[in-house]
Amino acid sequence: MTHPTTPAAASSAERAAEPGTAAAPTTAELDRLDPLAGYRERFLPSDGLVAYLDGNSLGRPLRVTADHLGAFVARDWGGRLIRAWDEQWMELPFSLGDRIAAATLGAAPGQTVVADSTTVLLYKLMRAAVDARPGRHELVLDDDNFPTDRFVAEGIARERGLRIRWISVDPARGVELDQVRAAVGPDTALVVLSHVSYRSGFLADMEGITRVAHDAGALVLWDLCHSVGSVPTRLDEWNVDLAVGCTYKYLNGGPGSPAFGYVARRLQADLEQPVQGWMGAADVFAMGDGFVPGEGMRRFLSGTPPVIGMLAMQDMLDLIEEAGIDAIRAKSIALTEHALRLVEKQLVPLGVTIATPKAAEERGSHVTIRHPEFREVTARLWEQGVIPDFRAPDGLRIGLSPLSTSFAELQRGIDAIETALTGGATAAGSS
């Protein structure tokens, strides 16, 4: 499995956290050695918050975003009014898409657009992809993929008369290369997989799986929702066909911020997306009698761009560009390594099991642990200002957003989970 890293990006905190070292670093040492520690002060504090461990569901807002939203209302919307469409808003889906591509995706300009919700973009690109492979009758997905991916695929299969070949996976891991190799064949039109599993945090071998699917003549669509902004990719280098990702997790775009879609340049002219709207037309203001698709990524737009929903993520992209995605990945590894050590020490003796790969190269930026009481425990933790999230039937996810999460915050969260499981008596204490 190949994952992009650079020696310079490996922080001293990450090196200290490597398995096999003489002594594991303490929480205080990790925070002191963290080269990205200063970024935490740029996020808006939350009253009553003890530990926020759900950055893989909704990222925290930046301090500057409140000012920028107010300025937008007064200056861009209130001041320029309809003129702002010509001055900046019409091109925002493309310019912002290019920023996401350059900072996080390893993709050249002109292949990424910010548009609809994740579900809508998945539908548009999945439908376009299967229609571009006439004579093939199968979609390949894993049975533990995120529900919206599976639900959209089921609907498209009904619409287009296709079959779904399900890959059965270990829910504590994810889709393995050999499983994809066994599933694809001459009848495969499209493979749809998540780069990072929403349940276990397993990091799939995007490069290898894409190559295997291409060898079978199939296209591949990657769901990047749980990796974009925390795990670097090389979409162009790895010859990826299509990708969709949300912007409210590690890109901190806010609740309901729009998703982005990536379509490799080599495919754009051949794909016909099914939701034909005026913003996807070659001449948006021609008001023509029939639809003529636009060039490049414009053809994948449908309706009016959600401009307000694109504002907050621009502030987070400033930080990602400044810190560098490889340094962010190094911090993510250090955080998840420390989380695993704390869980092993404090929670495993209480009956907790780990449902996330222990090898850093197989893990995204969240750790999932399991216990039969976690549904009730999570509800109690939220009341105390400790915010992980629960995934049925018994999983608690510890989501670690590298630029906003400290090692001390992680420690407080683990301590609170321990206390909740022991009824108030802490066995191991802080380290």
UniProtKB/TrEMBL annotation:
One of its GO terms (molecular function) is kynureninase activity. Its cofactor is pyridoxal 5'-phosphate. Residues 1-24 are annotated as: Disordered. Keywords: Hydrolase, Pyridine nucleotide biosynthesis, Pyridoxal phosphate. It comes from the Bacteria. Residues 8-24 have a biased composition (Low complexity). Pfam families: DegT_DnrJ_EryC1, KYNU_C. Pathway: Cofactor biosynthesis; NAD(+) biosynthesis; quinolinate from L-kynurenine: step 2/3; Amino-acid degradation; L-kynurenine degradation; L-alanine and anthranilate from L-kynurenine: step 1/1. It catalyses: L-kynurenine + H2O = anthranilate + L-alanine + H(+); 3-hydroxy-L-kynurenine + H2O = 3-hydroxyanthranilate + L-alanine + H(+). Belongs to the kynureninase family. Homodimer. This is Kynureninase. The lineage of its organism: Bacteria, Bacillati, Actinomycetota, Actinomycetes, Micrococcales. The gene is kynU.
